[in-house]
Amino acid sequence: MTLLPPPGKGQVLALCMLFIVATLVYFAGFSWFFRGRAEVGGQVEELVEQEHQLRAKLAQKPMLERRLGEIQTFEASNTYFLPEETFDLAAAGLNTKIKDVLSGPAMNPSRCSVISSQNQKLQGEEPYEKVTIQVRLRCDIEYLSSLFYELENTTPLLFVTELNLYQQPVFDAGIALTQLGSLDVRFDLSGYIRKKNVVVQ
């Protein structure tokens, strides 16, 4: 007994078998090829997009360099920064500035003088390096406004912060006259150092 298709059905069965075999051959031998091509196509599109972005950035470079040059030219002529290039030199310059103001014509060195000063270097990332000295004075109150005016209204720009005033009483016949006498004045005096030029890459 042989298993043969009914008469007239052999051609249909052969076509079905051929389709099944072709499908198996495709999935076994060619599907990876088409999937690979699809993945490569996606990578190519991504690379093309990255190239467009890089070209756009490169096109902006001349404009950015020109703008940076303008900023550097402005800063080179800007007198708002401390003229010194290092923290220690700038701190020494701030100490000299205070002494120059205290010896000025509007001041009386015997009535307003420096007791102590200490450099304070702050840690942290800032666009410009901050230079601060902590100052302690003994000063009559009438000289304080002139002192702070001279410090904050000249160039380079200086900033007075953390101001604290303590009364230094005067004794008369053993009685403290708190409304008289000099003040113990403590404050921070700060300025900024210009940072070195940045190069556009």
What is the highest CATH level, the class of the largest domain? Alpha Beta
Number of strands: 6
Taken from the alpha-carbon principal axes, the silhouette is: rod-shaped
Radius of gyration: 41 Å
- Considering DSSP H and I runs of 4 or more, what fraction of the residues is helical? 40-55%
Instruction: Give the total of domains.
Output: 2
Q: What is the fold-level CATH name, i.e. the topology of the largest domain? A: Alpha-Beta Plaits
Instruction: Describe the largest sheet.
Output: 4 strands, antiparallel
Strand proportion: 15-25%
Q: Mind telling me the CATH superfamily name of the largest domain?
A: Ribosomal protein S6/Translation elongation factor EF1B
| Structural class by helix and strand composition | alpha+beta
**N-to-C terminal Cα separation, in Å?**
86 Å
Describe the protein in words.
- It is built from four helices and six strands.
- The longest helix has 46 residues.
- The protein starts with 9 loop residues before the first helix and ends in an 8-residue tail after the last strand.
Keywords summarizing the entry:
single chain; alpha+beta; Alpha-Beta Plaits; 4-stranded antiparallel sheet; two-stranded antiparallel sheet; 4 helices; 6 strands; 23% strand; rod-shaped
Q: Could you give the topology of this structure?
A:
Elements: H1 10-29, H2 31-76, H3 87-102, E1 112-120, E2 129-139, H4 141-152, E3 159-167, E4 170-172, E5 175-177, E6 183-193
Antiparallel strand pairs: 1-2, 2-6, 3-6, 4-5
